[in-house]
Amino acid sequence: MEQVFSYIISLGASVMMPILFTIIGLCIGMKFGKSLKSGLYVGVGFVGLGIVTALLTTNFNTPLDAISKIFELDLKVFDMGWPAAAAVAYNTAVGALIIPICLGINFLLLITKCTRTVNIDLWNYWHFAFIGAVAYFVMDQSLLWGYFTAIACYIVTLVMADLTAERFQGYYDNMEGISIPQPFCQSFTAFAIVINWLLDKIPGFSKLDIDAEGMKQKFGVLGEPLVLGVIVGALIGLAAHFDHLTNFAAYTAGFGSTADAVMSIVKSVLFLGVTMGAVMELIPRITRLFIDGLMPISEKTQEVVKRKFKGKKVYIGMSPALVIGHPTTLVVSLLLIPVTLILAIALSKTGNQFLPLASLAGMFYVFVMVLPYTKGNVVKTFIVGLVAVTIGLYFVTDMAPAFTNAANTVFEATQDKAAKIPEGFQAGALDFASSLFGYVIYACVKYLQWIGMGVLTLITIGMVVWNRMRIVKEEKINK
Known about the structure:
This protein is mainly α and 479 residues long. It has one domain (2-211, 279-324, 343-478). It has helices at residues 2-11, 13-27, 32-70, 81-90, 98-111, 126-138, 143-171, 183-200, 212-219, 225-240, 242-246, 248-252, 258-308, 327-346, 371-374, 378-414, 430-433, 436-448, 450-478, and strands at 77-79, 117-119, 178-179, 315-317, 354-355, 426-428. It has a three-stranded parallel sheet with strand order 5-1-6. The radius of gyration is 23 Å and the shape is globular.
């Protein structure tokens, strides 16, 4: 078994996933040519992610190291971004079979009335593979722990998708019959409910709102991810040259003239700015390749589900990308990006070691399940995001050693550049390592071990039983 998994992992996600998706396409009745094309799009997407991630690891490790030394920061967790986290997750023994296993569990829960959601958001199955991979390495490469945590996360997420489906559909337009079974998004539901309730207890707070559409228009070109990336990259470049700028005379001694020294700094700053801008712009474009590959499979699965479960209430679990263009999401995300960077640096003295960079492109996904509870209130949504992301920085820091172990093992087996970590750093990613679901499962495994497995088992079974009772009761009422 170990040899089989080792061979599968050695193929790399760019080879393994096209084979898997081609097989899945054939199993649900797609033609071979269409199935193969879908799989290859996914494979090409992984190749693109490796190239983009290499841009970060190659160009930003030296400036970030310089910044840490200059400002005496303890930020040794390098942000690999969600693309690299996905590549690592799918390239482990757990990730190799996570999609067919979870699809089988989904089908079993569906026919036993334990869920109404059919999760066809296949790309985001990497979240389940990620937490499984982390647990796998924490527990000395135990497949039992890896698959247990991945499956527990999957089941809890399906139940949460059911419980939040009606509120989600009620808030967003044209989303009838859709639920969001992505654990990263669902992890923020608890923050939204609790913080929104507390804010409502403050007299007059609900009246404190700002027009999201108007603010979005005011941001103008600054609201573009490309421009934001250039600004962030350039600021990192300037910070890395802080010592040179404050001791400019000493710095110019190594150059032929002052002009040469100035041009060297300007060149470095502009290059880092454009590079970060490229990362922010290319990640969504490469993600489009995954969507192009997965959409035919998702549409075919939707047809099969509607045909097999005709007359029954079934939710189609889709990607949160469907609704991240909401004005409130865009405005709050753009406000929170610079605040998160400042927070990460400010909290370096209190235990945080993570500086988010590549993950900032995924900030828009934080608010998908928050808006239905804050009703689009910009101030409330910002506060929820601020609290959740602040806590998430510590989650990423604590999980970094296990994530680093996974990334190093994957890189040794596949030489996949997406899994390569700069020397002297550990690996981190805001998505999914900063989420409540991911961290609670990780903490149960790392700190409680077998007791943690018992706790997770009770929570998972309890949620499934409760959800089934709720579904059965509703079906009886509607008869």
